[in-house]
Amino acid sequence: MKKFWAGLLLALTLTVTAVLPAQAGMISQEDEISMGRQTAQQLEAQYGLYQDQAATERVNRIGQSLVAVCDRKGLPYSFKILNTDDVNAVSCPGGFIYVNKGLMDYMPSDSELAGVLGHEIGHVVKKHVVNQIEKNLWTNLAVIIATGGRDIGLAMAASQVLSAGYSRTDERGADKMGFKYSVKAGYNPYSMLITMYKLEDLAQKQGAPNYGLFSSHPEPAEREKRMKELLTPLQVNPSVAPHQDSAEVVDGSWHFNITQTVGSDKPMYRALSLAGGLYAARERGPIAPEKFIVDDQGDQATIYYDEVQLLTLYPVDAAGFDSVGAYANACVKILRDWAPIANARNFVKPNVEKIK
Fold it and tell me: Exposed, middle or buried: residue 44 (CB in 10 Å: 0-12, 13-18, 19+)?
C-alpha cells in the first residue's frame, strides 16, 4: 500500500511538472493570453457578437484610451460587444474584454462605459483569474488531466473562475483601478459611482440582489462608500445638490437645475454626469466659453466641451422651447456663465498615481 501511494504521488508530481508551472505565480503571460483567447472564443460562440460597427468601434476606442494609461500595456487588448440583453461585462485573461449589448443600452454615456471597461481592465492588470487558478493548483490539475491537455484545461479553469465570480478583495482592487484609469484618461470621475447607483436600481427593480453585474460584483453599498472615499481627494467642482425630485449642479452662486428622469438616468445621475464632465473639462486647462457646443440630432441634443460629453437633453427637458436643440443652446449660455468662475479657482490636477 505504501508503494501504491508513493507511486501515485510520484505520478501526480510528474503530471504537475508536465502540465503546470513548477509553482504558483509562474503561469506565463503566453499561457495567460492563450487561455484568455480560448475563453473569449467560447463566449463569442455562446452569445454571438453584436453586429454594429459604429458601436463596436466606440467601445474599442474607449477601451484603448484606458489601456493607454493602464499599468499593464503589453497585452493584446480587445473590446467587443456580446449580443445579449443581460446588463453585464466580463474580462478574460490576457485582455479579451466584453460588454453586453444590454449594458450599453442601460449605460449610454462614454464615461459610464469607461468606468465599466476600466474595472474589467483592472481585473486583467491585477491578474485576478490567473492568481485564482494558481491558488487552486491541485483542483485545476484534475481539470487539466481530465481534459487531456494543458491549454484546454487552463481555459476551462479560467471559465470556472469567471463563473464562480471574484472575491470581494479582487472586486475592490478592480474598482480602484477602474477609477484610476478613467480619471487618468480624462473621463468623468463620477462615472463608476453612477454605474454603481444604476446597477443597484436595476437589482431592486428586478427583485434580485445578484442580478447582472452583481452576480460577480457584490456589496453595492460598501462599494459606493469606497468609491466616494476615492473621490474625496479630487475635490470635484462643481458640486451636486440632490433634492427630492431634482438635482442641482452648483458652484458658488452659479447653478444648473435638472428635473427630469430619462430612462435609467435619474436627475441625480444626470447632475453627476454634468458636474463630473465640467470637472474633466477644467482638467484640460482654463475654460474657453466658445468650446461649449451642441450636437443637435433632432430628437435629442448633446452638449460637449470639446470632445468631453457633458449632458444629453431630450424633449421631456425642453418644455416651453421650440425644440430640444433650442433648449440645449439656452443651456450652453448658462454653462458659458460658469467659465469665469471656474477659471478664477486655483485648479490642482489630482495625482491618481497614488492609487495602487
Answer: middle
Cβ distance 256 to 331 under 8 Å? yes
pLDDT at position 152: 65
Q: Tell me: pLDDT of 46 over 80.
A: yes
SS3 61: helix
List strands edge to edge, sheet with 78-82: 78-82, 96-100, 89-92
| 115 pLDDT above the threshold of 90 | yes
DSSP reduced 3-state for 39: helix
- Spatial distance between the Cα atoms of 108 and 178, rounded to a whole number of angstroms: 18
CB 215 within 8 A of CB 203: no
What nine digits make up the cell of 327? 433648449
Q: Which three cell numbers stand for residue 124?
A: 486583467
- Could you tell me which residues are beta bridge partners of residue 19? none
Once rounded to an integer, what is the mean pLDDT over residues 89-105?
A: 94
- Of 12-21, 215-224, 287-296, the range with the highest mean pLDDT is 287-296
Q: Which of 285, 277, 341, 338 is nearest to 311 (CA)?
A: 277
Separation between Cα atoms, residue 103 and residue 111, nearest integer Å = 13
| pLDDT surpasses 50 at 319 | yes
Query: What is the C-alpha to C-alpha distance for residues 102 and 200, in angstroms, rounded to an integer?
Result: 15
**Quick one: which of 97, 95, 114, 122 has its CA closest to 43?**
97
Domain range annotation of the chain: 8-188, 236-345
**Of the candidates 97, 96, 102, the residue with the CA atom closest to the CA atom of residue 84:** 102
- What are the residues facing 312 on neighbouring strands? 302
